[in-house]
Amino acid sequence: MSAFTESISRQALLEKANQLIKEHDDYFAGMEATDVIQQRDVLVFRGPLFLDNDELPTAKTTAVFNVFKYLAITFSSQYHLE
User: Fold this and answer.
1) pTM beyond cutoff 0.85
2) What pLDDT digit, counting tens, does each position of 26-71 carry?
């Protein structure tokens, strides 16, 4: 990992991420990050995607994707997983 990022536990990062999610303009009830993995230098957040009955994306899916992308950009430059 980069020498310029701080090591952080998965749980601590999820707590920070979920706080940031609640402050985001696109937040809606039920949006949350439930897992995070490290793929090279990028932190990838996971959580409910809010698909419709046919398992197709909805407007909420797009909002979740955009917020998770925001989390990846924000936190990948600051942290790496322990």
Assistant:
1) yes
2) 999 999 999 999 999 999 999 999 999 999 999 999 999 999 999 9
All residues at 6 or more sequence positions from 30 whose CB lies less than 8 Å from its CB, including other chains: 48, 50
Contact 59, 67 (CB under 8 A): no
Q: Domain ranges in the chain?
A: 6-81
Residues 6 or more apart whose CB falls under 8 angstroms from that of 60 comprise: 28, 31, 50
The domain covering 6-81 belongs, at the CATH homologous superfamily level, to Protein of unknown function (DUF2498) (3.30.300.360)
